[in-house]
Structure formats: C-alpha cells, structure tokens
Amino acid sequence: MTYASPTPNQMTPAGHARAIAILGLPLIGGHLAQFAIGMTDTIMLGWYGVEALAAVTLASSYFLAVFLLGSGFAFAVMPIVAEALGSGDHRQVRRATRMGLWLSLGFGVLAMPVFLWAEAIFLWIGQAPEVSQLAAEYLSIAGWGLFPALLVMVLKSYLAGLERTQVVLWITLFAALINAVVNYVLIFGHYGAPHLGIAGAAIASVVTQCASLAGVLIYAHRTLPEHALFRNLHHSDWEMLGQVFRVGLPSGLTTLSEASLFTASAMMMGWLGTVPQAAHGIAVSLAGVTFMVHLGLSNAATIRIGNALGRKDRAHMVLGAYVVNGLSLTMSICAISAFVLMPEKLIAAFLDQNDPAQPQIMAVGVGLLAVAAVFQLTDGLQVVALGLLRGLQDTGVPMVIAAVSYWAVGIPTSYVMGFVLGWNGIGVWLGLVVGLSVAGLMLMVRFWRHSIHRI
C-alpha cells in the first residue's frame, strides 16, 4: 500500500501522522518480526541453558555489529529511491538498487573471516572459554547467513523507498515463523530431528535468511517488472556505485558505532560473569523491541523526507519532522511505563523457572530494565534524527557525531562506571544512557540547525 498526497505542502499534522502511520506501521511490524528472529533464539536457548543463553547473547551482538555495518549500503538505497520517486526518475531507482546489491555482496566476502576467527577474538577480549567456544560454534554457521541477510536488506529498502511497506511486513513475518519452527525442531531435537542445541539455532537463522531472500526476489520480479532489477545485473554503473558508497559507508559506520556500544556492553557484562551476561541479553532484547518501533518511524521519516527532497518541499519536511518526533516520544513514554511497572513479568518470559540461576538473573535484569527505562527517550531521539538526516542524504557529519558519542563517550563511561567506580552491570548500562543522550542531542541539533536549511 502506498500513500501520496495531492497537495503535500498543505498537509495538517494529523495528515502527516496518518501518512507516517501508513508507511511506518508495516515497517515497525517488519522490524519487530525481524527482531523476533533473534529473540526466538534468545528465548529458546534460555530454556536450553544459561551458558547457551550467554553464548548466543555474545554471538548475536557480534553478528549484529558486522551486519549493521554492511547494511549501510541498503540504508543508502532507501533515500535515493525515495528521492527518485519524488522527482519521477524511475531509472535512478533501478541503478541505486543494483549497486546496493553489488556493494552488499562485496562486503559479505570481506566480512566472513571475522566469523571464522570468532573464538580467538572472543578469548582475546577476555570472554569465558566455554562461552567463547559456544558463541564461535554459532557464528561459524550463522555467519553464512550474512550474504542473504544483506541482499534482503537492500531489496527491502528498495521496496520501502517505493512505499511498498506492506509486503516488507508480510515477508518478514513469514521468515519469523520459519525461524521459530526450525529453532524448536533443531535446538531440542523434536520430531525425529537431531538434538543440535546452539548449532540448531544457527542453522535456523541461515534457513530463515534464505527463505526471506527467496520471498523478496519473487515479489520484486513478479510485481515490478518495469524496473528490471535483475536483467544485466552484472553490468557496472560506477557513478551510481560511488553515490551509494558515499551515502552508505557513513550510514553503516554510524549504525556500527551504536551497535558497538551495545556489543562492548555485552562483552563487559561477560567480564562480570555468565549470569550478568545472560541478564543483559534479556534486557537488551526487551529494550530492542521498543527500539524497533523507533526504527520503523525513522525509516518512514527517511522515505518521506527523501520524497519531499525530490520535490524540494521544505515546509513539508519541517512539519513532518515535528510529527515523527512526537510519535517517537509517545512510544518512549509507553515503554518507560512497562519497564518500570512490570519488569519481573517481562523477564520471566525468557527463563526456565526451574533453573537454579533464575533468581539471580531476575535480580540483575530488573535493575538493568530500570536503566533501560531511562534511555528510552534519548534512544528514540537519536534514531529518528538519523532517519531524518538520511532522508537528506546527510551521512558524513552524523557518522562523526556517532563515533564521538558512542566510542569516545559511551564506551569509556560504561567502563568507568562499571569497573572503576564498581557499579557493575548498572554502571555499564548507565554508560549506554550517557552515550545515547549525547548522540540524540547532537544529531537533532545537526538536523534543525544545519541540514534542513540546505533545502
């Protein structure tokens, strides 16, 4: 389903909210379904054992960091396609998508060694040997899913840029269902299948990514033949490849900066022990659910800002930016309420109640969710600001802001509060609050005081 207003510069705030909802709700649902794939691993391996849960927490954070860096080229495709749609240049749509596929495949080839050498890397950064071995076992299989996962991201961005967000939702829901079934069968050895534990979860992830790729390829080929995406796919387009690279690499590095903040926090929690690391995995999963809502709103903002950029409609951009920030704030308030009022119920869903470590994980997790409530506002602020800036294809300075906020401020603050001041897991998570707050404020200043005035 697509949305188009005959007089976009005359839209009311309610009209903007409706347009963002039509675009954003399927994107939010798609992100939540995608996130459910990782959460399914976390829940089922939590039932399987605390050590397996700690290992998949570490491995998932590691995979996500690599995946998000490579996803920068997909992120670049979305605003370029949206701008082309706004200006009526359909040839540009095909060119951007093809080169996004090229760059994503190239990145996958370069990234594979970090999965194959994962155990040595985990041991080098001080993770427990048994957790490192299990996490590396997971990544040696799941890492191959990087190729289909990146291609899926490019094609989803292409479809979202064309405002075909409903299909993105349905394909991702289909993939999440496949992942849950295959996980259940292979982790625990049901229905005559081998009992594979964490390796079964990794196989399920690869199967899921391949199924997603098949679904999105079939849809794009059958319903959008006018773009002929896969005809002469091997032909180079160096000008467009350069544009996608220039927008995409900073986007990927920006996202990696934030992901690395959470990856570093997972590793620091590992230094505190298996129980804190398992509790961290649960709390991050719950905070991730709310982040996916903000991310869907951010994507909708990118599409609508990019579309307005193609029309050179600054008034439309300004009002739309106010509305999307208001929607993100509303979601933050709902999440804060849930994390503060019912943390035990949320955490209990991830645990086997008969596990002897359950009371310890619950105690640590409740404290972490209290801190997660604090950073809801700033986490939403920074991801929506990034979406607005990407819509304008402004990615270079935001990359620097993210690097400073997360690497120079967030990670050191987590270490100091967690280990120098001795606040343990709570201190590590307070560092997340500081990093996200600095990023959110600086990115919003960038959008409102500089980027929007260039139009």
Distance between the termini: 28 Å
Task: Kindly report the average pLDDT value.
Answer: 83
How many runs of DSSP E, i.e. beta strands? 0
Structural class: mainly alpha
- Spans of at least 5 consecutive residues with low confidence: 1-7
What Rg, in angstroms, do the CA atoms define? Answer: 21 Å
Biggest sheet record: none
| β-strand amount | under 5%
The backbone outline, from C-alpha atoms, is: globular
Amount of helix = over 70%
Count the helices. How many?
17
- What's the SSE pattern? HHHHHHHHHHHHHHHHH
Please write out the topology.
Layout: H1 13-48, H2 50-70, H3 72-87, H4 90-116, H5 118-124, H6 129-142, H7 146-161, H8 165-188, H9 198-223, H10 238-272, H11 274-311, H12 314-341, H13 343-348, H14 358-374, H15 376-391, H16 396-420, H17 424-449
Helix pairs in contact: 1-2, 1-8, 1-9, 1-11, 1-12, 2-6, 2-10, 2-11, 3-4, 3-7, 3-10, 3-11, 4-7, 4-10, 5-6, 6-9, 7-9, 8-9, 10-11, 10-16, 10-17, 11-12, 11-14, 11-15, 12-14, 12-15, 14-17, 15-17, 16-17
